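Worked example 2:
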Amino acid sequence: MKPVWDLPLTPAGLLVELDSGARVRVRPGRSTDREALLAAFDQFSDESRYMRFFSPRPSLTPAMVETFTEIDDVHQFAWAVFDPDEPSLVGDVSGLAIASARLFVDPDGSGVEATLAVIDSYQRKGLGRFLIELLTSTASIFGFDEIRFEVLHENHSMRTLLSKVGATAHPVPEDRSVVDYRLAVPDGDEIDVPMGAVYALLRLAEGQ
């Protein structure tokens, strides 16, 4: 990925050029993203919802929406990704919401679990690998050395992606439908683009 350093940084986010040549805009998630979150959820197929939530999910409950938008950068870190060339469905200046990546910190602070989601029309375009790069860079900046992903055994595309980026698979004895993947977080000097630092800078840019 190649950040497009159009300074000064603004709350709309930072433009990034993916390895495919496509452009996306990224910024930290916000408490005001409720409408964008719900609009993006409507763009997921039933299969994608099942793979993300491990069960049929026709809608997000109010409690889930609150969880996904209560981002305090202590217990949860979140990136929101947009297509800057497509208009937002809810009037967001960042563009059309197309993906998200989150880190949920364990209650004792010892580790983090990651989740990511890409709306169906933008899948298989390199966004998954990009989201993992965002997550590992953010985890590195905030002092975590490993990320966990819980993935359905049948989610072959996600399992293939995680294997390609070097994550190791571990069985979950109490639930054989799920595979626990562990991804080591590189040292800061091994990461080409310190997007974790950009995350913090964007927070400052938007006054949070």
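The helical segments are 34-41, 46-53, 62-69, 127-141, 156-164, 195-205. The mean pLDDT is 91.
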